[in-house]
Amino acid sequence: MISISICKTFGLSHNQDKGQRRALLASLLPLSGLLCPFPAAAQEIDGARLFQQRCASCHSIEAGQNKAGPHLSGVIGRPAGSVEGATYSEAMRSSGLTWDSQSLDTFLTAPGRMVRGTRMTVALPNATQRAAIIQYLEGQSAD
Ligand code: HEC
Q: What is the location of CATH 1.10.760.10 in the chain?
């Protein structure tokens, strides 16, 4: 009874069209953001899927399978430029980096800025996407 009268107050009926419903949802969205303890975007981005879309053409997550880029199985904790049989630039081999979530985040933001002369040119400027991919890579241990 109460909800019906609220709907009537807002000029909505059970026969409201989609546009009206969408408008109502849109007006409630900022509220749901306040009630939700995590940013919605971080929950929705699927690191595995993003990796398939943005990285898998050049990187396998199977140890020993190198494509244009080295495999990324167990990349967390691995010294940069160290996969046997992978083709690296001199810049990567001599970078002195060890990959952890922080250095990966910096690298993926702008690879050439961190490792000048690297052959990897794909950048992920979106921090939420980087976090999702790094979290995914953390789960891909070397075996
Ligand atoms: C067009 C091909 C290509 C794509 C797409 C690509 N990479 Fe790369 N990546 C490379 C190449 C080539 C290297 C080797 C760079 C070098 O030696 O300078 C590399 C190196 C790396 C390294 C360093 C690995 C090591 O062993 O030191 C990481 C980490 C990495 N890529 C992550 C990613 C991630 C994450 C993505 C997706 C967002 C991605 N790459 C997309 C080609 C690519």
A: 42-138
Distance 112 CA to ligand 1 centre (A): 11
Which tokens belong to 87?
């083709």
CB 71 within 8 A of CB 62: yes
Q: What distance in Å separates the CA atoms of residue 53 and residue 133, rounded to the nearest whole number?
A: 11
Report the percentage of the chain scoring pLDDT > 90: 66
How many angstroms does the Cα of residue 107 sit away from the middle of ligand 1?
A: 10
Its pTM stands at 0.77
Residue 36: the pLDDT is: 46
Ligand 1 atom at minimum distance from 68 CA = 12
Cβ-contact 73, 143 below 8 angstroms: yes
Report pLDDT for 56. 98
| Token pair for 25 | 């949802």
Mean pLDDT of 23-34: 54
Closest C-alpha residue for ligand 1 atom 34: 55
State which fold the 42-138 domain adopts. Answer: Cytochrome Bc1 Complex; Chain D, domain 2 (1.10.760)
List phi, psi (to 5°) of 98.
-120, 130
